[in-house]
Design goal:
215 residues; alpha/beta; Metallo-beta-lactamase, Chain A; six-stranded mixed sheet; 6 helices; 14 strands; hydrolase activity; metal-binding; metal ion binding; MBL_Glyoxalase_II; RibonucZ/Hydroxyglut_hydro
């Protein structure tokens, strides 16, 4: 399996495309600029199978409908944020003057539990990692040694918790119990900024010192 990031929108939210040798792909967090993403997918001759959302903040969902409609594919989102897609007050687009309110149609599939998932040849684990938002999830591809962490963990930082439903204590618990427990060489694909690894964050992330960082 291969992957690549596509930073989208004014906040440069990382959309990730993971694809197999047969050119099937999964799209994570198409935040904006649908035409840009479609052109990249077309250029690489990729066939999308689904949209997976780490959470439902506006900068991660803005291109969901045009991508879904273009490829006729389903959207997956945690059930705790089922109503957020169409509600600017919840998804945050009503709180920031960066553009028109974001309203997206409901997700076809709601994630209700953690566990192993198989989707069109892709196999991965779903971890509930709330704190940045109540329905935040991370997607772990053990065979490939990578995790799509959304806005839970960044290079040298962690997700903000001052938006609706945010909880710092819950976020720290999610990071330490779900993410830092992964193999240290696991590649972390965050919602913003550069790619990192679990080991690097255990060593140098100032927000994690004293909460399980290596001595």
């Amino acid at each position: 399996m291969n992957w690549f990031p596509v930073p989208l929108g004014g906040l440069q939210t990382n959309c990730y495309v993971l694809y197999s040798e047969d050119r099937k792909c999964i799209i994570f967090d198409p935040g904006e600029e649908a035409n840009k993403l479609i052109n990249i997918l077309s250029g690489k001759k990729l066939e999308p199978a689904a949209i997976m959302l780490t959470h439902a903040h506006f900068d991660h969902i803005g291109a969901v409908d045009p991508i879904r409609d273009r490829y006729r594919i389903p959207v997956y989102l945690h059930e705790r944020e089922a109503k957020w897609l169409g509600d600017p007050a919840l998804n945050g687009s009503g709180l920031f003057p960066v553009g028109p309110p974001v309203r997206v149609r409901h997700a076809e599939h709601l994630i209700k539990n953690e566990g192993r998932m198989e989707l069109d040849g892709f196999e991965f684990d779903i971890f509930e990692t709330p704190g940045h938002s109540p329905g935040s999830v991370s997607y772990y591809f053990s065979e490939n040694g990578l995790v799509v962490s959304g806005d839970a963990l960044f290079m040298g930082s962690i997700g903000r918790t001052d938006l609706p439903g945010g909880n710092e204590k819950e976020l720290m618990k999610s990071i330490h119990s779900k993410l830092l427990s992964l193999p240290e060489d696991t590649i972390v694909l965050p919602g913003h900024g550069p790619v990192t690894t679990i080991e690097d964050e255990m060593d140098s992330n100032p927000f994690l010192h004293g909460f399980g960082s290596k001595p």
